[in-house]
From TrEMBL:
Domain CENP-V/GFA: 6-79
GO molecular function: carbon-sulfur lyase activity; metal ion binding
Species annotation: Hirsutella minnesotensis 3608
SUPFAM superfamilies: Mss4-like
Protein name listed in UniProt: CENP-V/GFA domain-containing protein
Pfam families with a match to the protein in the record: GFA (PF04828)
Family recorded in the similarity comment: Belongs to the Gfa family.
Amino acid sequence: MQTPLSAFQYIKGAPRTYKQENGVVREFCEKCGAFICEYGLMTDSVNLQEQAADKFRYVMWGTFDEPEKVPPKGEFFCQQRVQWMPEIRGMASRRLIETCEG
């Protein structure tokens, strides 16, 4: 879920981070390795990645204490959905996500 950086904070602990070659930064729980959030642009430009990092985080829905308070508005990467994962009816979906190439 896209979350403004001003509304996002860790209340306990500090995450481990991993910066991918495409500029996206992912944060994980330091204890269990659960994927918490990601930010940045898929580009080779460090400046653009830093601008995006100052504005928002994409927070994984499963990390919320009360996920029922933030219902999904859409789905992404639907082409990669495993068979046991049902489609979310009535939601916008994207089978493929175009990436920026440097």
